[in-house]
Amino acid sequence: MAGSSLKKALGHIRVLDLTRVLAGPWCAQNLADMGADVIKVERPGAGDDTRHWGPPYLKDAEGRDTSEAAYYLAANRGKRSITIDIASPEGQEVVRRLARQADVVLENYKVGQLKKYGLDYDSLKREKSDIVYCSITGFGQDGPYAQRPGYDFIIQGMGGFMSITGERDDLPGGGPQKAGVAIADLMTGMYATIAVLSALTHRDRTGEGQYIDMALLDVQVAMLANMNTNYLASGNPPKRWGNAHPNIVPYQTFPTADGHIIVAVGNDGQYRRFVEAGGRPELALDERFATNPMRVRHRDTLVPILAEMVKTKTKQQWIDALEAAGVPCGPINNLDEVFENPQVQSRGMRVDLPHPTGGDVKLVGSPIKMSQTPPGYDMPPPMLGQHTQEILRDVLGQNEEQITALREKGVI
């Protein structure tokens, strides 16, 4: 979806991306989708750690594995890659010069690590007074845990998410469970995107840049939403309910004859139509189950009966019957089924881009839909250092001799 920068919401913005792995790259990819020129700075010879987090790997035109791990591909489209050894004085100077040409700097180094290189906020603010500088760490720039490394899995546990996720402790398989994706990283990337856009708006109004301090733990705590306020209002920590709901019955998954479905009954009328569709209308007349408060009270009696009822039909039979009856329901799809879903296809959620290896890279599109400045997908995730010469020449104005000298010294 190429187009003029005037048709890109962030076509006037340049981002210097010093991040790696997931939270920072996710933020940078959001900005790239909206048209920002994102320059991804990577270590010479190694690059972003996730380049090596495979298999699986991207395949070339002949179906052979390349060196590009699928994990890396998920968070790095639309960027240009330059390799710079920031531990060297010459590399630090290149980064400082790039910062002078940037609107935003993103980094996720350990607290204080970039200061010794002269690449911290205070240093780069002297290079460009209105810079927006966003640091992403596990625990933030201050507090007793600031120096600890922060990993998503640990944050999910420490921030309370795993205390409310997983099967009930009194049922088989009960216990804490992490999410299937790195939600603390991903949500931090999303919150960081909001913060960066807010800071850019402030800069455009006042001419003032600022420093943004994002912490995975802060985000994990914040995103528990109503569970937080349930606790703060009652003083009682919420517990795990697996795929059930603490206040509504039935509102959970059920096994069918050939898979699982979700049934989300929101009122007594929907419950009545649910059991009628299953050939058990009497379950709506039984006083133990007639109202939601009574169903919650008698959950352990009712749910096994409903589970046996649901097993009598296939997943599709149930979905057809319940949709016709106006009972909220849905399948539990694997990713084959997700990408075959006509609604997902209609919404353009898969994007195929040509890749320098000769094959195509299959990616997931942005969920953002905008009428005037929609996300664009001009470039696939870059190869390591793919744009080093281009950036040094076009952004910094360096000639071939200067670039060759940096390469011979191992700076790039």
Distance between the first and last residues' Cα: 31 Å
Query: Helix and strand succession?
Result: EHEEEHEHEHEHHEHHEEHHHHHEHHEEHH
Output mean pLDDT: 95
**Low-confidence spans:** none
What does this structure look like?
The chain is built from 17 helices and 13 strands. With 412 residues, it is an alpha/beta fold. It has 2 domains: 5-223 and 343-408, Rossmann fold (3-Layer(aba) Sandwich); 251-255 and 260-331, 2-Layer Sandwich (formyl-coa transferase, domain 3). The strands form 4 sheets. It has a 6-stranded parallel β-sheet with strand order 5-2-1-6-7-8, with helices on both faces. Strands 9-10-11 form a 3-stranded antiparallel β-sheet, with helices on one face. Helix 1 (23-33) packs across helix 6 (183-206) and helix 9 crosses helix 13. The longest helix is centred in the middle third of the chain and has 24 residues, at 183-206. It is elongated, with a radius of gyration of 26 Å.
